[in-house]
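Q: Can someone sanity-check these two? First one:
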Amino acid sequence: MTGHNQLNVAQRLKALESALVELRERLDKVTADLGLAPGNTRLVIQRVNVMKLILQAQTEIDRLRVAPAEE
């Protein structure tokens, strides 16, 4: 892997890790809101969508961390 590609991977990892922190904070807030209004379907859907985004971000982080070792 070239130095330029490594820099892109490092930048992408940093951005994803930052997004992951924000998504986890958002999940905590939605979960707390849902605790106050357990019958709120909008919050249930929002929580599921945030969990999906967290899973996607974590999967991409894991893939980027493994990719340099494979090349």
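And here is the second, same format, sequence then tokens:
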Amino acid sequence: MITSNLYVLVDKTQKTVLTPIQELLENWNNINGLSFLDEEKLADLEWAGHPGQGWIKFNSDDLSEFTYDDVWLNISKNNIKSKVANERWKKENEILIFEGNELKLDDKTKMSLQNAKLSLTKTQSIHWKFRNGFSNLTYTQLANLYNFTFNYTTQCFGEEMRVCDLVSSATTLEELRSLDLTCSWPSTIAHK
């Protein structure tokens, strides 16, 4: 889930948020390894010389007692959308499996597949190098491989758009917190 490791730095005295929704930083104010601390230690940073401050998990009910403004909400929504985009990028660059062959899907591979599909006639075949060796592909197999990679990429972007549209629709922190931002990425295995 996209929001499982998102936090907000709060001022517990003023009951205000200090940072937009974000992942914990590796080194924040000379505190190394925030992500390894338990929720109780994160929520009260007095032990680290920051009295009245704490990191509260984005999906915690405790966050509802802190005030924020529209600018904070918009920046926070953009941070979540950026996290979704990063997840899509990782998924888009996964290893795909086509007829037992492993394919690293990057921009060069996408262009090569498109060019080969446009260049071959229906009676020709092509030797294609996969991560786990070469395979001779008929025009039909190449077309199926191209369609699989194209559809996979399109579905990844579609899922990013679906989740980002959900995030955009939220007008309050409560609405944003109530959204199911679980991404349903497509299968990396081509099915016949």
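A (reply): Looked at the second one. The longest strand covers residues 6-11. The chain has two domains: 2-67, 90-178.
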